[in-house]
Amino acid sequence: MARLLYTSADFAPAWIALPPWELHDCVVAVLGRDTRAWPLTEPQCVTHFPSSPFVTVSAVLEGQVEVPVHHQRDLAGPAWRCSRLVLSGPQTRSSHSRYSESTHSVMVLLYPHAWQLLSRTLADTWTNRSVDATPLLPPAMLGVFEGLWKPGDDAERLDHLFQRLSPLWRHCRDDHSATALQWRFAAEPPLRTWLRWAALCAAGSGVGRSLRQAERRFRALTAQSQRALNKRARAERAFFAALEIYPQGKPNWTDLALECGYADQSHFIRDIQEVTGFSPEAFYTGLMHEEAFSVYRAWAMLLGAEWSRSSGDGGRP
């Protein structure tokens, strides 16, 4: 059975799960949140999301989710009420959404190259967009995600998803990706290892070996430039480094910036604000105390944040 890693019991139930090995080069992770037994106040209904290079298919199993139409910070502006199945492309900026007081949802994060193989559409077509996924998904993929509404708990739903997606992925991926993507390590977040693989594939495949040709191949695989994704990976490195320090006290931001490869603290602050929409100080305060940062807390479980509790048996560690 799929292993769900839960965040602190001090917050509404949120979890993250890694895929089985046969899907490690297709699915980044699956995140879930269930507030049905945890009534939210109005401020707690807001959820913050980082910029992300991945393609996301979200299932709103119960309740309602609204997304600002123009990505404005003010949630009082025009908003789109999400359909039951939502496709979101890579996001180059932070975002947020508003959940109803009682909501149950699941987010499946896919690597862009996997989305392109599964759907036969380019990932960058959906950059900074969230749309109704139902008319866009091929029938076989739609059947996979519709299975999330089957009766059972979240672990059982996830098992069903993985069982349906695995043969579909085996069928559509090419031999090159099947042999080259042996890179998932439990001790390292998926983004860094995926970027290394993409850089190697871009440099060593296709016709032509010039830097510009390699950059084009990298963008074709990832839907973004290598420079933009390296910035995102550096910010993620700082995120996990700060988490290791925070239980012992507030991090020294200058030292952390230098440790993670930033030129200075100002450079560090600009990047963190670009990825999360918050200064480092405001971000980590929210992470530790505010319901709205549930996605970040779930992501922190990838490297074993201390607020975890687990559910389910088996699965890959």
List keywords for this structure.
single chain; 11 helices; Jelly Rolls; disordered C terminus; Arc Repressor Mutant, subunit A; four-stranded antiparallel β-sheet; eight-stranded antiparallel β-sheet; globular; 12 strands; alpha+beta
Description:
With 317 residues, this protein is an alpha+beta fold. It folds into 2 domains: 173 residues, Jelly Rolls, CATH 2.60.120.10; 116 residues, Orthogonal Bundle (Arc Repressor Mutant, subunit A). The protein has 11 helices and 12 strands. The longest helix has 20 residues. It is globular. The protein starts with a strand and ends in a 6-residue tail after the last strand. The C terminus is likely disordered.
Write the layout of secondary structure elements.
Elements: E1 4-6, E2 14-17, E3 27-34, E4 46-49, E5 55-62, E6 65-68, E7 79-81, E8 85-88, E9 95-99, E10 104-110, H1 112-119, E11 130-132, H2 139-146, H3 154-172, H4 175-180, H5 190-204, H6 211-222, H7 226-245, H8 253-259, H9 265-276, H10 280-289, H11 294-300, E12 309-311
